[in-house]
Amino acid sequence: MRYCLKVCQIKEVTNQQLLPVLDATGGGVCCTPLASEPLSAAGAEEMASLFKAVADPVRLRLLSLIACHPGGESCVCDLTPEFDMTAPSVSYHLKILREAGLISSERRGTWVYYRVMPEAMARMSAVLEPPAR
Q: What is the distance between the alpha carbons of residues 50 and 60, in angstroms, rounded to a whole number?
């Protein structure tokens, strides 16, 4: 039943996004750099899923192509020719990025357009911030 609910929710919501955790002081994204304070178990789980999604060269390149595309979004029809693989394989990698919350998608007619989620990128960057010297 739990799996069915998750699948049904995914089918109904095409523009899923993870909401950032806000700090109480200024409302900014709350991600403590690794060098200043150890991550909590929950924080490590969240960050690991984001980094795992981009740990593949194809997904990292897809993320870069989408982020660099004029207008900040890219159609799957623009992305597929960039790779020496089938369209279903490209769609699989896009699905992994979307499920991790790194990109969002929107169907327009027969095509799907993808956009990078800046909040997720900011969380990843904040964790990797080098220590102050």
A: 11
